[in-house]
Amino acid sequence: MRVLVLGGSSYVAQFVLRGCLDANAIVASGSTDATTQLLTIGCTLRTPAAALSGGDDTRLPSQFHLVQHGQPPPPLDGCHDRVWVFPATDVTDQASISACLSCFQPDVVINCVGEMEIAECFRDNLTHIVTAALSSPAACEKQPELARAINHPTALLAALADASKLRGAAIRLLHFSTDLVYGGAVMPAGGYSEADASMATAPPTTVYGQTKLMFDEALMAQHDCCPLVLRIANVVGPPAPLFRNQLPKFIEWLHKQLFESNDQPVRLWSDEIRSFVFVQDIVGLVLLLLQRDNECWTANPIINVGGAESLSRVQVAEQYIAVCNGRSIRREHAPLAAVQRASVDIGYSPPLDATLNTSRQIGLIGCATPTQTWMEEIASAISRIT
Fold first, then answer.
1. Which end of the chain is more exposed for a tag (fewer CB within 10 A), N or C?
2. Under a CB-based contact definition with an 8 Å cutoff, are residues 334 and 264 in contact?
3. What distances in angstroms separate CA 232 from CA 176, 182, 229, one per listed residue?
4. CATH numeric code, 2-121+128-247+276-308+355-368
5. Are strands 118-123 and 126-131 parallel, antiparallel or unpaired?
């Protein structure tokens, strides 16, 4: 099976690629069911090929191999211990993505571009989103047309339709969406279910959520590919495994503010609730879906992906401090300062509580990783690099 990951340098994509390589190693060792398919793995990067041979900041991991544009493709199959990299690929440019699809001829495309290089940072102790693409709510509010072009990539749909017709079978598309498509309606008891987002009856309250939901709905009306949408909550996990010098995710930033910075209070939202999801739970779901047939995909075309419990950032910090103190001699940490997001004008209005109903996710892979478990894993990973 050929699997192409779009946006290969994004945080979740790196773990998906690492998970695919690890899964191949297990299959090759004979340790899995004989029906499990080996994966031929590819990914796209927006970075030009010339820039990927520079210093440590841009050098490709050892298992990544460039496919040069304009040259005959290498023999892709049979190389299950590597990732074929298609540089300078832009999903908003139909010719660019079509050339990649023509060369790699994937069975499954995993679209991580909407998640591309989002890093939750905090400037002057207030939430500030930094992103290389138009995938942050704040940036989308300022540039709605550009947000629509990136988050609703019609060029990708057209390229997939053409490629599917050429191969005589629909390419499967696994698309990463967001929990911020919800919020246009009152949250039901038990959290938002997959049916609670609708541009017609409950449009999201942010441009980011609207553009993501528009593409979700376009995919559900698409007949030229076989789509499955994962609506993912705030992702937590250890430092990115493949590419260096990326902006930190929330827990990594939090660790630094608590234990490595000065004694200034760490200001965090106390009233914004999210279903924080461990990145390895996403990887596990993706690997399972890759091995399932089209009937499974069409039966569950949209799946909420969240964690074991819904928490505010203050609650995450309190639990993380307890986990770190339980790992060693009690450590001094900066004090927490709870701030109500409802009292601060951040320029846009995402839902305060975006708790997800994850019954479909649980039905496929079981319960999510417990909060304490993923916190311990992240703390251990951070301690190894600090």
1. C
2. yes
3. 7, 11, 9
4. 3.40.50.720
5. antiparallel
pLDDT average, residue stretch 315-332: 88
Contacts of 28 (CB under 8 A, 6+ apart): 38, 80
8-state DSSP, 335: P
Q: How many CB atoms are located within 10 Å of the residue 91 CB?
A: 24
Spacing of C-alpha 322 from chain mean position? 27
Task: Give the rounded distance of the alpha carbon of 4 from its chain centre.
Answer: 15
CA distances from 62 to 199, 247, 353 (A): 44, 22, 42
Burial class (CB in 10 A: 0-12, 13-18, 19+), 39: buried
Find, among 100, 95, 93, 94, the residue nearest to 49 by Cα: 100
Residue 236's closest CA among 278, 268, 272?
Answer: 278
Three-state DSSP at 140 gives helix
CA separation for the pair 14, 332 (Å, rounded): 33
In DSSP terms, 178 is beta-bridged to 232
Amino acid at position 130, single letter? V
| Rounded-to-10 torsion of CA 370, 373, 378, 381 | -150
Q: How far apart are CA 266 and CA 258, in angstroms?
A: 7
Q: How far apart are the first and last CA of the chain?
A: 39
Backbone dihedral angles phi then psi of residue 286, each to the nearest 5 degrees: -60, -45
Tally Cβ neighbours within 10 Å of residue 223.
9
- Measuring CA to CA, which residue among 112, 111, 220, 100 is closest to residue 163? 100
Q: Where are the alpha helices (DSSP H) in the chain?
A: 11-28, 94-104, 137-142, 144-151, 154-167, 207-220, 250-259, 279-291, 294-299, 313-327, 359-365, 371-385
pLDDT tens digits for range 290-303: 999 988 899 989 99
**Strand, coil or helix: what is 67?**
coil
pLDDT in tens, 222-240: 888 899 999 999 999 999 9
Helix 144-151 crosses helix 207-220 at what angle (to 10 degrees)?
30
11-35, pLDDT tens digit by residue? 999 999 999 999 999 998 887 776 7
Tokens of 79: 């190389």
